[in-house]
Design goal:
binds zinc ion, globular, mainly alpha, 66 residues
């Protein structure tokens, strides 16, 4: 059984979108992932903006968001 991937900052269990967004915003090769609210905090954005970005990345066909 695979352990769930957790946010490196708050420990929240991450969804695939959170992982893809971390790769997109931080580094493609990162092994450290963050939930959407910690990413928002880190980049001084709102979760709302990040959710819109996820939709945009998907719409652009970004391969990280399969
Ligand atoms: Zn977090």
């Amino acid at each position: 059984m695979t352990e769930p991937v957790r946010c490196a900052r708050c420990g929240a269990v991450l969804e695939k979108d959170d992982i893809a967004l971390t790769r997109k915003m931080v580094n493609r090769g990162t092994e450290t992932f963050f939930c959407i609210s910690c990413l928002a905090d880190h980049f001084e954005l709102t979760e709302e903006i990040l959710r819109i970005k996820i939709r945009e990345f998907k719409a652009m066909g970004c391969t990280l968001f399969d």
